[in-house]
């Protein structure tokens, strides 16, 4: 590698090693996944799908992609007679847009959770192309910070959407897919669930499934997810759809949106799914929840306000209003002390999104490094001290380095 690039690459390794990472959407992949990402599969063009490519030389690529599909379905206990999966999306945002283009016409009406309430840009926010090309109405959370299912129903009744999108990037509570599915069925609309944040938790059953209820009742029609958050795979995304929707979804990905799939990424995604089916991964996701709950409780003891009063998953939002520090300043103070967490709007935030009132805290990355409840208690103290202006850099660095990155 070029000397300067090699230096930067090593500096990033060092930064990761020395930092306590509380960014809820980040994680560390296994050495096997890093190996897959640097494989020679990156050299290959393979527009099309297994058995129907526009280039020769794809015998092994076909097997890799078929295997990735099989492992994806297995990870979420799905039968391939009911569900199909596309493993080619480059990442989450294009995956979501490809779904909209597959099941909606331009300017069709849809519902999505507002970004300011914990939703995602691609769920119809006005500056995202999802909000530009489709007529999205946005729902949010109620006064207790809980997803406002009543608002979803009211909007569905009023606007008769063709699609209801749910899923979040800053929501700390269990999402009730049964309720959402009932609304979708009542108003005869498709239900798409974006489980990017909680995919790892769904895979092991520590968060209810959007695919079907315990009773066997069918829920979502389409489920999208990135592969690099709680699922702990490489950057990428996949789309699950009910079998009858898959031809349109596949066409929307290729040739609709993308050219050649990133085959090294597909290899790494298959590896991630194989890892996600192990008992070790299940234990990992159970520990994520224990860690998040512990960290939230410890911060509450230190007079921090948590949106919705707590957490059921891998993250929570701190509303820093009572601490007299903005989310932007908190992010900087933490980073100065080798703790990384991103600023975030809180519901009904009086401040602007560029420097909002909150900070989002997640534990998937620390949990991958082996941290447990004891370390969470310590991290709560470090956050408190750092936000009071104390210097805890060396303490944070020492703690991070006791738990090396994989
Ligand atoms: N940027 C991701 C997150 O941080 O949640 C979502 O795309």
From TrEMBL:
Ranges where the record places region Disordered: 344-363
Family as reported in the entry's similarity comment: Belongs to the SHMT family.
Modified residues (N6-(pyridoxal phosphate)lysine): 229
Compartments (UniProt record): Cytoplasm
Organism of this sequence: Candidatus Spechtbacteria bacterium RIFCSPLOWO2_12_FULL_38_22
Name this polypeptide is given: Serine hydroxymethyltransferase
UniProt entry tagged with the keyword Methyltransferase: yes
Pathway given in the UniProt record: One-carbon metabolism; tetrahydrofolate interconversion; Amino-acid biosynthesis; glycine biosynthesis; glycine from L-serine: step 1/1
GO molecular function: glycine hydroxymethyltransferase activity; methyltransferase activity; pyridoxal phosphate binding
Signal peptide coordinates: none
């Amino acid at each position: 590698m070029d000397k300067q690039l090699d230096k930067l690459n090593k500096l990033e390794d060092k930064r990761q090693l020395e930092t306590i990472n509380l960014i809820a959407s980040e994680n560390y992949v296994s050495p096997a996944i890093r190996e897959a990402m640097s494989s020679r599969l990156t050299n290959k063009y393979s527009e099309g799908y297994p058995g129907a490519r526009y280039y020769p030389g794809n015998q092994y690529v076909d097997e890799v992609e078929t295997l990735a599909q099989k492992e994806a379905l297995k990870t979420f206990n799905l039968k391939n007679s009911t569900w199909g999966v596309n493993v080619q999306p480059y990442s989450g945002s294009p995956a979501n847009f490809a779904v909209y283009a597959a099941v909606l016409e331009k300017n069709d009406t849809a519902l999505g959770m507002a970004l300011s309430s914990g939703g995602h840009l691609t769920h119809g926010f006005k500056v995202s192309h999802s909000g530009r090309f489709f007529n999205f109405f946005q729902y949010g959370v109620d006064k207790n910070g809980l997803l406002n299912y009543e608002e979803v129903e009211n909007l569905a009744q009023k606007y008769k959407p063709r699609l209801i999108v749910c899923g979040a990037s800053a929501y700390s509570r269990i999402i009730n897919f049964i309720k959402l599915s009932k609304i979708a069925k009542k108003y005869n609309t498709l239900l798409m669930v974006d489980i990017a944040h909680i995919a790892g938790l769904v895979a092991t059953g520590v968060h209810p499934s959007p695919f079907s209820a315990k009773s066997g009742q069918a829920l979502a029609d389409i489920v999208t997810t990135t592969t690099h958050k709680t699922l702990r795979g490489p950057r990428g995304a996949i789309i699950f759809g009910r079998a009858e929707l898959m031809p349109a979804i596949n066409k929307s990905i290729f040739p609709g949106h993308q050219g050649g799939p990133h085959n090294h990424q597909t290899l790494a995604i298959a590896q991630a799914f194989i890892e996600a089916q192990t008992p070790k991964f299940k234990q990992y996701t159970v520990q994520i929840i224990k860690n998040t709950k512990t960290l939230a409780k410890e911060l509450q003891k230190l007079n921090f306000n948590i949106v919705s009063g707590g957490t059921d998953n891998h993250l929570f939002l701190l509303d820093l209003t009572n601490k007299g520090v903005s989310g932007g300043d908190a992010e900087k103070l933490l980073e100065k002390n080798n703790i990384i967490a991103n600023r975030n709007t809180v519901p009904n935030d009086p401040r602007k999104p560029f420097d909002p009132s909150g900070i989002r805290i997640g534990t998937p990355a620390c949990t991958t490094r082996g941290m447990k409840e004891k370390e969470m208690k310590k991290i709560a103290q470090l956050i408190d001290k750092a936000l009071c202006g104390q210097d805890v850099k060396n303490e944070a660095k020492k703690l991070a380095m006791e738990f090396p990155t994989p």
